[in-house]
Amino acid sequence: MPSFSAPDGTELAYHVSGRGSPVICLPGGAQDAGYLGDLGGLSAHRRLVLLDPRGTGRSATPADPASYRCDRLVGDVEALREHLGLDRIDLLAHCAGANLALLYAVRHPERVARLALITPSTVAVGFAPTGEDRLAAARLRADEPWFGPAYAALESIVAGDGDDWKAIDPFFYGRWDAPARAHLAAQDGRRNPEAAAVLAAEGAFDPEATRAALASFPAPTLVLAGELDLNSLPGAVARLAALLPGAEYIVQPQAGHYPWLDDAPWFAATTAAFLTGCSG
């Protein structure tokens, strides 16, 4: 597996698949990039360069745990760009990876050709859905056979007197079927809890400054929300898109937090069209 050295000497690994010009892909949270797969067939259109963040997958554990903080990970993305010999990059990020992508875009706007934010976290810009927002989104699934116990667990979590997070897993998938269950099971043990605890530590984000900087971000940006996503609610994602002057905001119908699983052809075609400049 190919690798490169981060600025602090940590050896970082990445996966390559597909054909065409490269697009660097950042996974969400403190886990390796394996759960992204081929992004619903996007690898048929572009060469995917999927980064395993430090401390996950085949990437080494850093000597300094404080280096897991999101703003410090910007240097890892820049080192990967330099390693690949690219003057400018197309950058795709999912979930919490979008926070890193936004910090990279603010620090190195001249290095980003196109930016795709897929069901992104909005922590970096200070937009946080309320518990009632999440409950309202969950009620869109009221006809699902698993809804009752899952919604009761979510109500308890929102109220602060419950912690049955496994019970609400179905809300993160557009279809709670065998492929969704297999996708979820494959993620067991792949998250680095030490890294997760540091990722959004104090000092990682300056939402006001980030929002101001994004107002002049020049690159075309795709901001894609899942209609049924309980994690990255479409309302918050739309607010993020509104910060970016070159943003195209799209809601994928009947999709959850992993939209490439819910309608792979739609997702791959939409994302590929944007990355090749053929959307809109």
Written description of the protein model:
The chain has 10 helices and 8 strands. With 280 residues, the chain is of the alpha/beta class. The protein has an 8-stranded mixed sheet with strand order 1-2-4-3-5-6-7-8, with helices on both faces. Strand 7, helix 8 (234-243) and strand 8 form a beta-alpha-beta unit. Helix 1 packs across helix 2 (97-107). The longest helix has 15 residues, at 70-84.
Beta-strand content bin: 15-25%
Going across the biggest sheet, name each strand in turn. 1-2-4-3-5-6-7-8
Number of helices: 10
User: What class do helices, strands and sheet pairing give?
Assistant: alpha/beta
Helix coverage percent: 25-40%
Using the coordinates above, name the CATH class.
Answer: Alpha Beta
Low-confidence region ranges: none
The succession of helices and strands, N to C, reads EEEEHEHEHHHHHEHEHH
Compose a concise summary of this entry.
This protein is α/β, with parallel strands linked by helices. The protein is built from 10 helices and 8 strands. The chain is globular, with a radius of gyration of 18 Å.
